[in-house]
Every structure is written in C-alpha cells, then in structure tokens.
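Milestone M4 deliverable, item 7.
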Amino acid sequence: MSYLLFPSSGNHVTLEPEWNFDRKDAQVKNEHITRGGKRYVYKWGSYVKFSFGLTFINSSTAALINSWWITNTKLMFTSTSETAVYSVMLIASDLPAGSFQKPYTDKFKGTIDLQGY
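Output delivered:
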C-alpha cells in the first residue's frame, strides 16, 4: 500500500512502508488518585501516531523529508486507497532518512515517525 506525505501547499512524496508499519491512537489525559482512593481521569483530546521504516529512498526524496524534519513543517499524511487525511509532524530524534542503503551510495533508508497535532 502506498502513502502520500506532503505539506498543505506543496509537493508530495509517495512512500512505500516496510512491513513494520504501525498506527496508534493516543490520548492527552491526566489522572490522579485521591487519598480516599478515588481515581479521576481528565481526557483533553486524542491524536494519531504512525511509525514505519523506509528503504531504497532516492536522494531527492530523502532530502525533502529531512528538510521537513529540520524546519518542523506541518504535513498531511494519507493512504492512496483511503479518504482520511491526517495532519502530522515528523517527530524523530534523528534525521528520518539519514542512512545509506548498503551497498548503494545514492539510496537512503530510515524510520518515519509521525504524530498528529
């Protein structure tokens, strides 16, 4: 399955995730327990997280993805077979496409970590 990643006003990149594609729904919440034993949970909202690996990325696509990560660009993420579009940002601690795909020197690999906002 193919996915599209793009800023709201520009070029898109087509991504072919590896087998480790993962989608999680998370909640923004706060909880505490009183001295009397009562538990209170306050839910403020929810967001989605995506994580997957990419291999054999060409250099122009890698440079574009890495520039979005460096500039904290707000992105859109969607499947080519769905109608849902997610507002996301790259949240990785390292460059998303920062390693060479051995034995090639013009192909890259990396991990894409996206989080909704």
